[in-house]
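User: Please fill in residues for this 484-position structure.
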Protein backbone atom coordinates (compact mmCIF):
# COMPACT_ATOMS: atom_id res chain seq x y z
CA UNK A 1 0.00 0.00 0.00
CA UNK A 2 1.21 3.52 -0.78
CA UNK A 3 1.23 5.46 2.49
CA UNK A 4 1.45 9.15 3.33
CA UNK A 5 4.87 10.53 4.22
CA UNK A 6 4.55 12.81 7.22
CA UNK A 7 7.38 14.10 9.43
CA UNK A 8 9.87 11.70 7.85
CA UNK A 9 7.71 8.58 8.40
CA UNK A 10 5.43 6.53 6.15
CA UNK A 11 1.94 6.51 7.68
CA UNK A 12 -1.38 4.91 6.73
CA UNK A 13 -4.39 7.18 6.60
CA UNK A 14 -6.03 8.19 9.87
CA UNK A 15 -9.29 6.81 8.44
CA UNK A 16 -7.68 3.56 7.18
CA UNK A 17 -9.50 4.14 3.88
CA UNK A 18 -7.75 3.34 0.62
CA UNK A 19 -8.38 3.76 -3.10
CA UNK A 20 -7.05 1.73 -6.06
CA UNK A 21 -4.23 2.87 -8.34
CA UNK A 22 -4.87 1.48 -11.82
CA UNK A 23 -2.53 0.94 -14.80
CA UNK A 24 -4.36 2.66 -17.68
CA UNK A 25 -2.63 0.48 -20.30
CA UNK A 26 -4.23 -2.70 -18.96
CA UNK A 27 -7.01 -1.54 -16.62
CA UNK A 28 -5.43 -3.63 -13.82
CA UNK A 29 -4.91 -2.45 -10.27
CA UNK A 30 -1.25 -1.75 -9.43
CA UNK A 31 -1.54 -0.83 -5.76
CA UNK A 32 -3.79 0.49 -3.02
CA UNK A 33 -3.28 4.06 -1.85
CA UNK A 34 -4.04 5.66 1.53
CA UNK A 35 -6.96 8.11 1.25
CA UNK A 36 -5.91 11.27 3.08
CA UNK A 37 -8.24 13.08 5.46
CA UNK A 38 -8.23 16.63 6.83
CA UNK A 39 -6.57 15.16 9.96
CA UNK A 40 -3.72 13.77 7.85
CA UNK A 41 -3.33 17.15 6.16
CA UNK A 42 -3.25 18.84 9.56
CA UNK A 43 -0.54 16.45 10.83
CA UNK A 44 1.51 17.08 7.67
CA UNK A 45 1.12 20.87 7.90
CA UNK A 46 2.13 20.85 11.60
CA UNK A 47 5.19 18.72 10.76
CA UNK A 48 6.14 21.10 7.96
CA UNK A 49 5.70 24.09 10.26
CA UNK A 50 7.92 22.51 12.95
CA UNK A 51 10.64 21.79 10.37
CA UNK A 52 10.33 25.34 9.07
CA UNK A 53 10.56 26.90 12.53
CA UNK A 54 13.43 24.56 13.42
CA UNK A 55 16.14 22.75 11.53
CA UNK A 56 15.36 23.87 7.96
CA UNK A 57 15.49 27.61 8.68
CA UNK A 58 18.47 27.24 11.04
CA UNK A 59 20.50 25.60 8.29
CA UNK A 60 22.69 27.76 6.03
CA UNK A 61 21.34 28.29 2.53
CA UNK A 62 24.45 26.53 1.15
CA UNK A 63 23.72 23.38 3.16
CA UNK A 64 20.03 23.40 2.16
CA UNK A 65 20.92 23.70 -1.51
CA UNK A 66 23.55 20.95 -1.23
CA UNK A 67 20.79 18.67 0.09
CA UNK A 68 18.64 19.50 -2.95
CA UNK A 69 21.57 18.54 -5.21
CA UNK A 70 21.67 15.22 -3.35
CA UNK A 71 17.98 14.73 -4.08
CA UNK A 72 18.75 15.21 -7.80
CA UNK A 73 21.50 12.56 -7.56
CA UNK A 74 19.12 10.29 -5.62
CA UNK A 75 16.53 10.40 -8.41
CA UNK A 76 19.19 9.64 -11.02
CA UNK A 77 20.53 6.74 -8.93
CA UNK A 78 17.04 5.19 -8.95
CA UNK A 79 16.19 6.23 -12.52
CA UNK A 80 14.80 2.83 -13.57
CA UNK A 81 12.51 2.57 -10.54
CA UNK A 82 11.14 6.08 -11.15
CA UNK A 83 10.75 5.29 -14.84
CA UNK A 84 8.82 2.07 -14.29
CA UNK A 85 6.60 3.68 -11.65
CA UNK A 86 5.76 6.63 -13.91
CA UNK A 87 5.08 4.33 -16.88
CA UNK A 88 2.76 2.09 -14.80
CA UNK A 89 0.85 5.01 -13.29
CA UNK A 90 0.39 6.93 -16.55
CA UNK A 91 0.85 4.47 -19.44
CA UNK A 92 3.48 6.74 -20.97
CA UNK A 93 5.75 5.13 -23.57
CA UNK A 94 9.30 4.47 -22.36
CA UNK A 95 10.76 6.79 -25.02
CA UNK A 96 8.84 9.79 -23.63
CA UNK A 97 9.18 9.12 -19.90
CA UNK A 98 12.88 8.26 -20.09
CA UNK A 99 13.69 11.34 -22.17
CA UNK A 100 11.43 13.88 -20.45
CA UNK A 101 9.71 12.99 -17.18
CA UNK A 102 12.46 11.44 -15.08
CA UNK A 103 15.46 13.49 -16.31
CA UNK A 104 13.49 16.70 -15.76
CA UNK A 105 12.43 15.50 -12.30
CA UNK A 106 16.10 15.32 -11.30
CA UNK A 107 17.12 18.43 -13.26
CA UNK A 108 14.52 20.58 -11.47
CA UNK A 109 16.34 20.09 -8.14
CA UNK A 110 19.76 20.74 -9.65
CA UNK A 111 18.55 23.77 -11.56
CA UNK A 112 16.79 25.54 -8.68
CA UNK A 113 19.66 24.79 -6.27
CA UNK A 114 21.98 26.53 -8.75
CA UNK A 115 19.67 29.45 -9.52
CA UNK A 116 18.99 30.14 -5.82
CA UNK A 117 22.74 30.40 -5.12
CA UNK A 118 23.14 32.94 -7.91
CA UNK A 119 20.16 35.15 -7.05
CA UNK A 120 20.94 38.89 -6.97
CA UNK A 121 19.61 41.23 -4.32
CA UNK A 122 18.85 44.89 -4.91
CA UNK A 123 19.61 48.14 -3.09
CA UNK A 124 18.43 51.71 -3.70
CA UNK A 125 19.95 54.99 -2.53
CA UNK A 126 17.43 57.68 -1.56
CA UNK A 127 18.14 61.40 -1.36
CA UNK A 128 17.15 63.16 1.86
CA UNK A 129 16.88 66.87 2.77
CA UNK A 130 19.87 66.74 5.13
CA UNK A 131 22.01 65.58 2.22
CA UNK A 132 23.11 62.39 3.95
CA UNK A 133 20.60 60.11 2.25
CA UNK A 134 19.34 56.64 3.00
CA UNK A 135 19.98 53.18 1.67
CA UNK A 136 17.14 50.72 1.03
CA UNK A 137 17.96 47.10 0.58
CA UNK A 138 15.59 44.33 -0.31
CA UNK A 139 15.72 40.94 1.34
CA UNK A 140 13.87 37.73 0.53
CA UNK A 141 12.27 35.50 3.09
CA UNK A 142 10.54 32.16 2.68
CA UNK A 143 6.74 32.04 3.02
CA UNK A 144 6.57 29.13 5.50
CA UNK A 145 4.53 26.06 4.55
CA UNK A 146 3.64 25.78 0.86
CA UNK A 147 0.87 23.45 -0.37
CA UNK A 148 1.69 21.77 -3.70
CA UNK A 149 -1.18 20.23 -5.70
CA UNK A 150 -0.17 18.46 -8.88
CA UNK A 151 -1.85 16.75 -11.86
CA UNK A 152 -1.36 13.35 -13.50
CA UNK A 153 -0.05 14.18 -16.94
CA UNK A 154 3.62 14.80 -16.05
CA UNK A 155 3.53 13.69 -12.41
CA UNK A 156 7.16 13.82 -11.26
CA UNK A 157 8.15 16.62 -13.61
CA UNK A 158 5.38 19.02 -12.56
CA UNK A 159 5.60 18.12 -8.86
CA UNK A 160 9.35 18.76 -8.70
CA UNK A 161 8.94 21.91 -10.82
CA UNK A 162 7.18 23.31 -7.72
CA UNK A 163 8.77 21.43 -4.81
CA UNK A 164 12.35 22.25 -5.88
CA UNK A 165 12.02 26.06 -5.99
CA UNK A 166 9.78 26.09 -2.89
CA UNK A 167 12.49 24.30 -0.89
CA UNK A 168 15.33 26.25 -2.54
CA UNK A 169 13.64 29.44 -1.31
CA UNK A 170 13.64 28.00 2.24
CA UNK A 171 10.04 26.81 2.60
CA UNK A 172 8.74 23.41 3.70
CA UNK A 173 6.08 21.64 1.62
CA UNK A 174 2.99 19.48 1.91
CA UNK A 175 2.33 17.77 -1.39
CA UNK A 176 -0.97 16.35 -2.60
CA UNK A 177 -0.16 14.40 -5.77
CA UNK A 178 -2.85 13.47 -8.25
CA UNK A 179 -4.90 10.47 -7.10
CA UNK A 180 -4.25 8.95 -10.56
CA UNK A 181 -0.44 8.99 -10.21
CA UNK A 182 0.67 8.64 -6.57
CA UNK A 183 3.78 6.48 -6.94
CA UNK A 184 6.67 8.77 -7.92
CA UNK A 185 5.79 11.33 -5.18
CA UNK A 186 6.14 8.43 -2.72
CA UNK A 187 9.46 7.26 -4.20
CA UNK A 188 10.65 10.84 -3.95
CA UNK A 189 9.96 10.71 -0.20
CA UNK A 190 12.43 7.80 0.06
CA UNK A 191 14.99 9.84 -1.87
CA UNK A 192 14.52 12.80 0.50
CA UNK A 193 15.03 10.54 3.50
CA UNK A 194 18.15 8.92 2.03
CA UNK A 195 19.56 12.33 1.08
CA UNK A 196 19.39 13.39 4.74
CA UNK A 197 16.80 16.15 4.33
CA UNK A 198 15.35 16.87 7.81
CA UNK A 199 12.01 15.29 8.73
CA UNK A 200 8.99 17.45 7.94
CA UNK A 201 10.57 19.39 5.05
CA UNK A 202 8.86 17.25 2.37
CA UNK A 203 5.49 15.69 3.27
CA UNK A 204 3.08 13.78 1.05
CA UNK A 205 -0.61 13.22 1.70
CA UNK A 206 -2.39 11.10 -0.92
CA UNK A 207 -6.05 11.34 -1.76
CA UNK A 208 -8.67 13.13 -3.79
CA UNK A 209 -9.43 16.82 -4.31
CA UNK A 210 -12.91 18.18 -3.51
CA UNK A 211 -14.14 17.48 0.08
CA UNK A 212 -10.93 15.53 0.64
CA UNK A 213 -7.19 15.95 1.22
CA UNK A 214 -6.71 18.46 -1.64
CA UNK A 215 -9.39 20.83 -0.42
CA UNK A 216 -8.26 20.48 3.21
CA UNK A 217 -4.77 21.60 2.18
CA UNK A 218 -6.11 24.69 0.41
CA UNK A 219 -8.24 25.64 3.45
CA UNK A 220 -5.60 25.03 6.12
CA UNK A 221 -4.85 28.32 7.93
CA UNK A 222 -1.15 27.50 8.46
CA UNK A 223 -0.46 27.02 4.76
CA UNK A 224 0.91 30.29 3.38
CA UNK A 225 0.60 29.62 -0.35
CA UNK A 226 -0.83 27.13 -2.80
CA UNK A 227 0.88 26.25 -6.04
CA UNK A 228 -1.37 24.26 -8.34
CA UNK A 229 -1.27 22.75 -11.82
CA UNK A 230 -4.49 21.30 -13.18
CA UNK A 231 -7.85 22.13 -14.66
CA UNK A 232 -9.18 25.66 -14.78
CA UNK A 233 -12.37 24.85 -12.84
CA UNK A 234 -10.25 23.29 -10.06
CA UNK A 235 -8.27 26.55 -10.02
CA UNK A 236 -11.51 28.46 -9.42
CA UNK A 237 -12.42 26.20 -6.47
CA UNK A 238 -8.92 26.53 -4.99
CA UNK A 239 -8.97 30.30 -5.34
CA UNK A 240 -12.24 30.46 -3.42
CA UNK A 241 -10.82 28.19 -0.70
CA UNK A 242 -7.71 30.37 -0.42
CA UNK A 243 -9.60 33.66 -0.27
CA UNK A 244 -10.44 33.73 3.48
CA UNK A 245 -6.74 33.60 4.42
CA UNK A 246 -5.55 35.72 1.43
CA UNK A 247 -3.13 32.94 0.48
CA UNK A 248 -0.72 33.48 -2.37
CA UNK A 249 -1.65 31.33 -5.35
CA UNK A 250 0.23 30.29 -8.47
CA UNK A 251 -1.90 28.49 -11.05
CA UNK A 252 -0.84 26.67 -14.22
CA UNK A 253 -4.18 25.72 -15.77
CA UNK A 254 -5.77 24.43 -18.95
CA UNK A 255 -5.26 25.49 -22.55
CA UNK A 256 -6.77 25.33 -26.03
CA UNK A 257 -3.61 26.24 -27.81
CA UNK A 258 -3.40 27.33 -31.45
CA UNK A 259 -0.76 26.30 -33.98
CA UNK A 260 -0.58 28.63 -36.98
CA UNK A 261 1.03 27.41 -40.19
CA UNK A 262 1.66 30.01 -42.87
CA UNK A 263 2.06 29.02 -46.53
CA UNK A 264 5.74 30.06 -46.42
CA UNK A 265 6.54 27.63 -43.56
CA UNK A 266 8.99 24.77 -43.98
CA UNK A 267 6.19 22.26 -44.51
CA UNK A 268 8.07 19.18 -43.41
CA UNK A 269 9.16 20.79 -40.15
CA UNK A 270 5.71 22.27 -39.54
CA UNK A 271 4.02 18.90 -40.04
CA UNK A 272 6.53 17.09 -37.81
CA UNK A 273 6.25 19.81 -35.13
CA UNK A 274 2.46 19.81 -35.21
CA UNK A 275 2.35 16.00 -35.02
CA UNK A 276 4.46 16.26 -31.85
CA UNK A 277 2.39 19.11 -30.43
CA UNK A 278 -0.86 17.21 -31.01
CA UNK A 279 -0.01 13.60 -30.14
CA UNK A 280 2.83 13.76 -27.56
CA UNK A 281 1.87 12.10 -24.28
CA UNK A 282 -1.41 11.10 -25.98
CA UNK A 283 -2.30 14.78 -26.23
CA UNK A 284 -2.18 15.12 -22.46
CA UNK A 285 0.20 18.06 -22.21
CA UNK A 286 -1.28 21.44 -21.31
CA UNK A 287 0.84 22.88 -24.17
CA UNK A 288 -0.58 20.59 -26.88
CA UNK A 289 -2.08 22.20 -30.00
CA UNK A 290 -5.78 21.36 -30.27
CA UNK A 291 -6.56 24.13 -32.80
CA UNK A 292 -4.51 24.19 -35.98
CA UNK A 293 -4.88 26.99 -38.53
CA UNK A 294 -3.30 26.43 -41.95
CA UNK A 295 -3.04 29.01 -44.73
CA UNK A 296 -5.29 28.00 -47.62
CA UNK A 297 -2.70 27.33 -50.38
CA UNK A 298 -1.12 24.51 -48.32
CA UNK A 299 -4.22 23.36 -46.41
CA UNK A 300 -4.92 20.09 -48.27
CA UNK A 301 -1.27 19.11 -48.42
CA UNK A 302 -0.80 19.81 -44.70
CA UNK A 303 -3.90 17.88 -43.64
CA UNK A 304 -2.89 14.88 -45.72
CA UNK A 305 0.69 14.92 -44.38
CA UNK A 306 -0.43 15.24 -40.73
CA UNK A 307 -2.96 12.41 -41.20
CA UNK A 308 -0.21 10.22 -42.64
CA UNK A 309 1.88 10.82 -39.51
CA UNK A 310 -1.08 10.17 -37.21
CA UNK A 311 -1.84 6.89 -38.95
CA UNK A 312 1.81 5.81 -38.77
CA UNK A 313 1.98 6.20 -34.96
CA UNK A 314 2.53 2.94 -33.08
CA UNK A 315 -0.08 2.79 -30.32
CA UNK A 316 0.01 0.21 -27.53
CA UNK A 317 2.29 -1.31 -24.88
CA UNK A 318 4.19 1.50 -23.12
CA UNK A 319 7.01 -0.92 -22.27
CA UNK A 320 7.63 -1.79 -25.95
CA UNK A 321 10.41 0.48 -27.23
CA UNK A 322 8.63 0.85 -30.59
CA UNK A 323 5.52 2.38 -28.97
CA UNK A 324 4.97 6.06 -29.68
CA UNK A 325 1.56 6.59 -28.06
CA UNK A 326 0.18 5.03 -24.90
CA UNK A 327 -3.31 5.12 -23.37
CA UNK A 328 -5.17 8.03 -21.82
CA UNK A 329 -4.85 8.30 -18.05
CA UNK A 330 -8.11 6.54 -17.03
CA UNK A 331 -11.35 4.99 -18.20
CA UNK A 332 -13.17 8.15 -17.11
CA UNK A 333 -10.88 10.34 -19.22
CA UNK A 334 -11.20 7.94 -22.18
CA UNK A 335 -15.00 8.30 -21.96
CA UNK A 336 -14.63 12.10 -21.81
CA UNK A 337 -12.43 12.17 -24.94
CA UNK A 338 -14.77 9.79 -26.80
CA UNK A 339 -17.72 12.01 -25.82
CA UNK A 340 -15.85 15.00 -27.31
CA UNK A 341 -15.48 13.00 -30.57
CA UNK A 342 -19.24 12.29 -30.50
CA UNK A 343 -20.03 15.94 -29.99
CA UNK A 344 -17.74 16.85 -32.93
CA UNK A 345 -19.57 14.24 -35.02
CA UNK A 346 -22.95 15.76 -34.05
CA UNK A 347 -21.63 19.21 -35.01
CA UNK A 348 -20.78 17.94 -38.50
CA UNK A 349 -17.00 17.38 -38.24
CA UNK A 350 -15.10 15.46 -40.89
CA UNK A 351 -12.90 12.82 -39.27
CA UNK A 352 -9.80 12.88 -41.48
CA UNK A 353 -8.46 10.04 -39.38
CA UNK A 354 -9.20 8.38 -36.03
CA UNK A 355 -12.25 9.03 -33.87
CA UNK A 356 -12.46 5.64 -32.20
CA UNK A 357 -10.71 3.10 -30.00
CA UNK A 358 -7.84 1.11 -31.56
CA UNK A 359 -8.12 -2.66 -31.56
CA UNK A 360 -5.37 -3.92 -29.31
CA UNK A 361 -4.68 -7.48 -28.33
CA UNK A 362 -4.14 -9.33 -25.06
CA UNK A 363 -3.97 -7.39 -21.82
CA UNK A 364 -4.07 -4.06 -23.70
CA UNK A 365 -7.59 -4.77 -24.99
CA UNK A 366 -8.81 -3.41 -21.62
CA UNK A 367 -6.57 -0.31 -21.76
CA UNK A 368 -7.84 3.26 -22.02
CA UNK A 369 -6.65 3.87 -25.60
CA UNK A 370 -8.10 6.15 -28.29
CA UNK A 371 -6.94 6.67 -31.84
CA UNK A 372 -4.89 9.70 -32.90
CA UNK A 373 -7.60 11.90 -34.40
CA UNK A 374 -7.77 14.79 -36.86
CA UNK A 375 -10.93 16.81 -37.42
CA UNK A 376 -11.85 19.42 -40.02
CA UNK A 377 -14.99 21.32 -41.00
CA UNK A 378 -16.19 22.58 -37.61
CA UNK A 379 -17.34 26.10 -36.81
CA UNK A 380 -15.28 27.98 -34.26
CA UNK A 381 -18.12 27.80 -31.72
CA UNK A 382 -18.26 23.97 -31.76
CA UNK A 383 -17.36 22.48 -28.41
CA UNK A 384 -14.44 20.49 -29.91
CA UNK A 385 -12.90 23.78 -31.07
CA UNK A 386 -13.70 25.80 -27.93
CA UNK A 387 -13.19 23.42 -25.02
CA UNK A 388 -10.04 21.64 -23.89
CA UNK A 389 -10.26 17.91 -24.77
CA UNK A 390 -6.82 16.84 -23.45
CA UNK A 391 -6.50 13.94 -25.86
CA UNK A 392 -4.62 13.11 -29.10
CA UNK A 393 -6.79 15.29 -31.32
CA UNK A 394 -6.75 18.57 -33.21
CA UNK A 395 -9.14 20.47 -35.43
CA UNK A 396 -7.62 22.01 -38.58
CA UNK A 397 -9.14 25.05 -40.26
CA UNK A 398 -7.97 27.03 -43.30
CA UNK A 399 -7.29 30.79 -43.15
CA UNK A 400 -6.46 33.45 -45.72
CA UNK A 401 -4.82 36.46 -44.06
CA UNK A 402 -2.55 37.18 -41.10
CA UNK A 403 -5.16 39.49 -39.53
CA UNK A 404 -7.81 36.78 -39.80
CA UNK A 405 -5.69 34.09 -38.15
CA UNK A 406 -4.58 36.36 -35.29
CA UNK A 407 -8.24 37.00 -34.52
CA UNK A 408 -9.14 33.29 -34.75
CA UNK A 409 -6.21 32.21 -32.58
CA UNK A 410 -7.04 34.74 -29.85
CA UNK A 411 -10.76 34.01 -29.87
CA UNK A 412 -10.59 31.70 -26.85
CA UNK A 413 -11.04 31.88 -23.09
CA UNK A 414 -7.59 30.31 -22.67
CA UNK A 415 -4.11 31.73 -23.27
CA UNK A 416 -1.33 29.32 -22.38
CA UNK A 417 0.82 29.05 -25.52
CA UNK A 418 0.85 29.27 -29.32
CA UNK A 419 3.05 27.88 -32.08
CA UNK A 420 3.75 29.88 -35.25
CA UNK A 421 5.33 28.28 -38.31
CA UNK A 422 6.69 30.65 -40.96
CA UNK A 423 9.99 31.42 -42.70
CA UNK A 424 9.19 35.16 -42.68
CA UNK A 425 11.01 36.58 -39.66
CA UNK A 426 9.09 39.86 -39.49
CA UNK A 427 5.78 38.07 -39.64
CA UNK A 428 6.92 35.59 -36.98
CA UNK A 429 7.67 38.37 -34.50
CA UNK A 430 4.62 40.41 -35.49
CA UNK A 431 2.25 37.49 -34.92
CA UNK A 432 4.02 36.38 -31.73
CA UNK A 433 3.56 39.86 -30.24
CA UNK A 434 -0.15 39.75 -30.99
CA UNK A 435 -0.80 36.31 -29.47
CA UNK A 436 -2.74 36.43 -26.18
CA UNK A 437 -0.61 33.75 -24.55
CA UNK A 438 2.12 33.36 -21.95
CA UNK A 439 4.48 31.58 -24.33
CA UNK A 440 4.85 31.62 -28.12
CA UNK A 441 7.03 29.19 -30.05
CA UNK A 442 8.28 30.13 -33.50
CA UNK A 443 9.15 27.13 -35.67
CA UNK A 444 9.31 24.83 -32.64
CA UNK A 445 7.28 23.41 -29.79
CA UNK A 446 8.04 22.30 -26.19
CA UNK A 447 11.53 23.82 -26.31
CA UNK A 448 12.03 25.07 -22.75
CA UNK A 449 14.78 27.06 -21.09
CA UNK A 450 14.07 26.67 -17.37
CA UNK A 451 15.23 30.24 -16.68
CA UNK A 452 12.34 31.73 -18.67
CA UNK A 453 8.95 32.57 -17.13
CA UNK A 454 6.22 29.99 -17.70
CA UNK A 455 2.49 30.53 -17.25
CA UNK A 456 -0.70 31.54 -18.97
CA UNK A 457 -3.07 34.45 -19.43
CA UNK A 458 -6.90 34.48 -19.25
CA UNK A 459 -8.25 31.12 -17.96
CA UNK A 460 -4.83 29.47 -18.34
CA UNK A 461 -3.45 30.69 -15.06
CA UNK A 462 -2.09 33.27 -12.68
CA UNK A 463 1.56 34.05 -12.11
CA UNK A 464 4.77 32.84 -13.66
CA UNK A 465 7.11 30.06 -12.60
CA UNK A 466 10.59 29.27 -13.94
CA UNK A 467 14.03 30.49 -12.88
CA UNK A 468 13.93 33.54 -10.64
CA UNK A 469 10.19 33.95 -11.33
CA UNK A 470 9.60 30.79 -9.28
CA UNK A 471 11.83 32.06 -6.49
CA UNK A 472 9.87 35.34 -6.53
CA UNK A 473 6.64 33.41 -5.94
CA UNK A 474 8.09 31.21 -3.19
CA UNK A 475 9.57 34.16 -1.24
CA UNK A 476 8.32 37.34 0.32
CA UNK A 477 10.45 40.44 -0.23
CA UNK A 478 11.09 42.91 2.58
CA UNK A 479 12.55 46.41 2.23
CA UNK A 480 14.88 47.66 4.96
CA UNK A 481 15.49 51.42 4.86
CA UNK A 482 18.62 52.71 6.64
CA UNK A 483 18.94 56.46 7.21
CA UNK A 484 22.60 57.46 6.87
P1 LIG B 1 -7.40 18.39 -11.92
O1 LIG B 1 -7.65 19.84 -11.74
O2 LIG B 1 -8.56 17.49 -12.04
O3 LIG B 1 -6.54 17.79 -10.72
C1 LIG B 1 -5.28 18.33 -10.39
C2 LIG B 1 -5.04 18.13 -8.89
O4 LIG B 1 -5.98 18.93 -8.17
C3 LIG B 1 -5.22 16.71 -8.41
O5 LIG B 1 -4.19 16.45 -7.46
C4 LIG B 1 -6.59 16.75 -7.74
O6 LIG B 1 -6.76 15.78 -6.72
C5 LIG B 1 -6.60 18.14 -7.16
N1 LIG B 1 -7.93 18.72 -6.91
C6 LIG B 1 -9.07 18.54 -7.62
N2 LIG B 1 -10.07 19.28 -7.08
C7 LIG B 1 -9.55 19.93 -6.01
C8 LIG B 1 -10.07 20.85 -5.05
N3 LIG B 1 -11.36 21.26 -5.08
N4 LIG B 1 -9.25 21.32 -4.09
C9 LIG B 1 -7.96 20.95 -4.06
N5 LIG B 1 -7.39 20.08 -4.92
C10 LIG B 1 -8.19 19.59 -5.91
O7 LIG B 1 -6.42 18.28 -13.19
P2 LIG B 1 -5.90 16.96 -13.88
O8 LIG B 1 -7.06 16.33 -14.57
O9 LIG B 1 -5.09 16.19 -12.93
O10 LIG B 1 -4.90 17.56 -14.98
C11 LIG B 1 -5.28 17.91 -16.26
C12 LIG B 1 -5.45 19.42 -16.38
O11 LIG B 1 -4.24 20.06 -15.97
C13 LIG B 1 -5.70 19.90 -17.79
O12 LIG B 1 -6.69 20.89 -17.77
C14 LIG B 1 -4.36 20.51 -18.20
O13 LIG B 1 -4.43 21.50 -19.20
C15 LIG B 1 -3.89 21.07 -16.90
N6 LIG B 1 -2.44 21.25 -16.91
C16 LIG B 1 -1.94 22.51 -16.98
C17 LIG B 1 -0.56 22.71 -17.03
C18 LIG B 1 0.03 24.08 -17.13
O14 LIG B 1 1.23 24.21 -16.91
N7 LIG B 1 -0.73 25.10 -17.45
C19 LIG B 1 0.29 21.60 -16.99
C20 LIG B 1 -0.27 20.33 -16.91
C21 LIG B 1 -1.64 20.16 -16.86
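Assistant: Residues filled in for all 484 positions:
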Amino acid sequence: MLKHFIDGQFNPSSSEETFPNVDPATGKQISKVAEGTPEDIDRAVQAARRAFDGEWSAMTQGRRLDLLQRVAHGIRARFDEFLEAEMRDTGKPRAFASRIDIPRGAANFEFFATIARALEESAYQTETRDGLGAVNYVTRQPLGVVGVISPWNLPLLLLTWKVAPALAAGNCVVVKPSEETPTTATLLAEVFKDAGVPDGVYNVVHGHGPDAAGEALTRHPDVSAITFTGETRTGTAIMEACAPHIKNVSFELGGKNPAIIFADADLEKAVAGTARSTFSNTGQVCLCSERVYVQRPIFDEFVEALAERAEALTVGDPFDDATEMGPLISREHQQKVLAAFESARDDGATFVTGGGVPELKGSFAEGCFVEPTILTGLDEDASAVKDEIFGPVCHIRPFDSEEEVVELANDTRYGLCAAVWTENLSRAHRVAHQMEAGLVWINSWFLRDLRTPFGGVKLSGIGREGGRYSLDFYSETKTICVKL
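For context: The domain at 4-253+458-483 is CATH 3.40.605.10 (Aldehyde Dehydrogenase; Chain A, domain 1).
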